[in-house]
Amino acid sequence: MNSDSAERASKKRTLRERFRAETAREILAAAEQVFIEEGLLATSMSMIAERARVAVGTLYNRFKDRDALLDALLEERRAELLERLDVVIAELEGQDLRTRLYGFVHTMLLQCEEHRPFLRLVLASEHAHASSKEKMSRALRERLDDVLKPGPANRDLRKDPDHSFSGLLLALLRGTLERERYGLPVMEPAAAAVLIVDFFMRGAGR
After folding, report:
1. Which residues pair with 205 in a beta bridge?
2. pLDDT by residue (tens digit) across 23-63?
3. Cβ 192 vs Cβ 175: under 8 Å
4. Suppose 38 and one of 16, 42, 123, 158 were both cysteines; which one would form an S-S bond, judging by CB atoms 3.0 to 4.6 Å apart?
């Protein structure tokens, strides 16, 4: 195969891969909407296939079953959130702790706002795989631990020998995301981020 043929073949593979990736995103977006409308347990593969405008067989070629599709959707949303958080953490490196925490919390709340109905459904459901929730919690905690690690930039923090601060902050975030369950109105992300960071700093500060 000459260089021109190899280049054309490479471009075809790239286009094919991009098409497959785009199709997968469309399927996951359709699945998210059906899960929201029907609930995690009532949703069927045929419902998702109809919404995504693909054959049921095509769906099963990509995903073993509904649970595998749900896991893929959770993984997609997790990857999107972590990518945005990593960008913000890198951009705010060297800033004071309050600024970095606000950037982290606000970014997370904005991402969750984009997918609020689905995330609310997952948080409230025992059906959603514990492993997916655990992976998300661990990834978020690792990043928060890095933001909160002892050092000159964080000298305003009390010592945290039990490594509790990141877990407490994540609990504040979760409570804010679940306000509707307690009959409270949803807060705008920027205002919620200010409240969470201020509450945390008052409790964790010296």
Report:
1. 157
2. 888 899 999 999 999 988 899 999 999 999 999 998 998 99
3. no
4. 42
Unique residue bearing structure tokens 């500060």: 205
Query: Per CATH, is 1-63 categorized as 3.30.1300.10?
Result: no
Q: How many Cβ atoms sit within 10 Å of the Cβ of residue 92?
A: 17
Q: Give pTM, 2 decimals.
A: 0.79
CA distance 171 to 202: 16
Question: What would the two tokens of residue 13 be?
Answer: 């593979």
